[in-house]
Amino acid sequence: MGRSRVVRGVVPVVVALAVAAGGMQAPASAAGSAGSPPVSLPSSPTGLTSPVPLPAGVDPVSPYLPQVSCNPVDMAGPLMLRDLLLSTYGVGRPGSISRGCTEGLSEHSEGRAMDWMVDTRRPAERAAAADFIAWVTRDGGLNARRLGIMYVIYNKKIWSVYNAKAGWRTSYAHTDHVHVSFSWAGARGSTSFWTGAVGVVDVGPCVRFAGSYAPPTSSPRTARCGTPTKALVRTSRGNRAYGSSGGTVRRAQTLLGVPATSRFDRATRNATRAFQRAHDLPVTGALDQPTWGSLDRGSIRRRTVARLSRRQAAARGVARYSSTSLAPGRAAEAVVVLQTALGLATADRNGFYGPVTRAAVERVQAGAGLAVDGVVDGPEWQAIQAALG
Questions:
Q1: Each residue of 24-49: pLDDT tens digit?
Q2: Where are the domains of the chain?
Q3: May I ask the CATH architecture of the domain 238-303?
């Protein structure tokens, strides 16, 4: 998909903020109502052949699921469709699937968008694109649903399965390739076109802290994500992700112990993920504010919870949080209080309930004769307070 105008090196936090507000906006397109298709379409397209018998039922229409994570890895669905397009039509070239995470919103940064290089100026390529587009959008997008396609862009026009009644709307560029963006089910290759079984709506990963990326997941999620918590730490460092470059990236590379190339490359992403796993941070692979707060503590400018002793934190927990439950995966101010009361290392007190916090909680539960399930309620807070004397 064509590049959007973004500031190089800055994590597109607008995505996380939009999800936090509950508004998932469709890809930007110029004003325009339903209109003619991007090219003349055949009335009886040949289309693609599924590798499995198709069920009588049809996969549900995917809503627009915006890019929320930085996971530049080619996913199964786009790879399989790209290979099938090339083998079926025998024209065009494979375009990109995954890209860097600094190029705007296109689903490429999550590996769930695909470009098929078929130029409108080449008759054979134009005809192949027209056949595929006619096949995938006909009958209200029946085949788009089976493939888990959210939208298609070609020759300055966009069509979306979640707004099929609007038909083809004005978009921009894409005159030398067809851009296809997939739902999470489509990206994972778990829809009926590939499996022979009707799939479900997979809403993908969830943002934990507002202004940050979501940690990528390998398994489907059918429940809607909750509202991300506000950032609990602010630093003087800017957010950076795969594809960023500059001095801020170089500073992180020095702290992470990887070659200081000033480019956010695979090695930097892997090192960031390893650091996040070790310090109970959401494993986003990006240098967001929670990560900077643990990696470069001298850069901290504001903390929501600060200057609490372990005893003070335990007392606050008993007074404020005994009637609520904290479970693994939670991001909240209460988790910082819990991590402080447990005496975790300062770099691990970031407000995300990860494996380090869970291990400490389970030690408390075992010592107090409580159910060892990692869930913190009133008895856990009381046990922590009692242990501190």
A1: 345 644 433 458 999 999 999 999 99
A2: 14-195, 238-303, 310-388
A3: Orthogonal Bundle (1.10)
